Amino acid sequence: MMKTRQERYVLVWVLFFGILSGCSKPILTTVQPSTAYPRQILSTDGSGLFTARAVWDHDLPSETDLNTSFLSGRYFQLPDVASTGNHPLAMRTSEGTSDNVVMVNVLAPSGSWPNPRIQEIMINNVFNDNGTDADYYLAIAVANGDADAVVTINGTDVPTILTSAISTDYFNMHIPATYGYPIYHYSLHVAFLENQNWGSTVQVALRNHDGSVSPQMSYTFPSSIATVDSDNDGLLDQWEENGYTAASGTVIDLKALGCDPKRKDLLVEVDWITAATPDPSIWTTIEAVFDQAPILNPNGSSGIEMHLDRGQGGVFTGGGTVLSDHTSMDFGPNPMSPGYTDFYTYKNSSFNTDRLDLFHYGIFGRARPNGSSGRGEVFGNDFMVTFANFTGLQAFATPRNQIGTFIHELGHNLDLCHAGSCDNPDRNETLKVNQPSSMNYLYQFPAVSLDCDLISDNAFGYSQGMLATLDETNVTEANGICDNLGLDFNSNGSTNNTGVINLNGDSNSTDISIDYNEWGAIRLDYRAAGSSWNNN
Predict the structure, then answer these.
(1) For 345-375, how does the pLDDT look when each residue is reduced to its tens digit (9 = 90+)?
(2) Residues 365/386, Cβ–Cβ less than 8 Å
(3) Are 405 and 363 a contacting pair, CB within 8 Å?
(4) Which domains does the chain have, with CATH numbers?
């Protein structure tokens, strides 16, 4: 019988992975995390894991095979009803069972399992392009998706496989039931679609094995094979594979810069004035924040690869220019604020226009006319860090303050405002106690708190949207923001107050404070329709 296209593609993968698996039994070394909740997806490390399956409760009467990632035991999901305590896990292929058995400690469930939430839809591969339509493997990144979850396209189930996941031990030390949307893991599901028209739009959802379904998300296919941007980073696949040809005729080798069409890349060039010379130590931290972002890519990797050109040499020689001094700087022209230096005066002289489609541009300056610490185009490509004149706790000399402000202002370029995505109605509300983000003024300088006490943990980045919503008209201080850790919101010396409490210090006490999913909302393609980019 003639096989379908999807079956033929799967057969190729089976043969490929079968060759990689070799003929020896698997070796299991570690499981991450080793303490987890029922239904959480974990990852294994070892060798010979291609075509291996995870064996739960090895050598016990309750021994069973687990749902794993496609053709591999690299990722597996704990049983929904796994009992509390230690369970032996082994890996098995047709060649035998791993000699090493790893114990997995299962915690008691805390609250109900959240419905899945689609983070992003990308392209894993394109086949059979005929100019009008093509076959696709879509890569759907999901929060709290099951290993055997099924993707639906316009309401119809399509073949779906799990390929990778991110799982942490964060909730081993917290109480998931006190969170609005606890995230146990992120997973990447590849779905096969045949004969999809270029430029068409579909509605995508994911259904877990308990029947819970994610909200639908729209996805519009590229207009042609030439415009495919698999990872949605604004850099077309053909640019990343073959080089980008600028209007001048210059070819920029993105591959030499480290770009990958199947992993998100973020290109940033940075210059500064002498008075605002950034501390050299900040760059590795900023790059690590994006590299460790809770984001999955079409190739199964996680994070965003940031390429910061600060003139460090090699292929990065565009940035690091020391600009002439100024009293203040802003985007211009602005007749309401005379006497400042126009950001674009610097850019026109120091930024290579061949990079306009590729790089964000940032300047560390002295000050803005209104005295603020910086400014970033909302969903654009330009930003500035401007607090060299600050003193006290916000002094520019502190690397922590420079990192937090850089990530904050670049976040505006990525379409984030002070309270989550700029599409949200309360986008400019800030000082929210339940939004752990560098976009929040509460954490821009002190750095983000990763737990429930509002005290900085010297972390940076954007929120995942996990904390519970707070209503200022009905606050219970004893509940705090999570883990039932009481907080003195109104600063009266007690954590036993209830009722109306102003949480963010604004002019009213009627706000509904929501922790938005910022990492899932960032937009890397500043050339897209609706952006603030003006080709400058």
Answers:
(1) 999 999 999 999 999 999 999 999 999 999 9
(2) yes
(3) no
(4) 5-106 (2.60.40.10), 117-161+185-219 (2.60.40), 237-415 (no CATH)
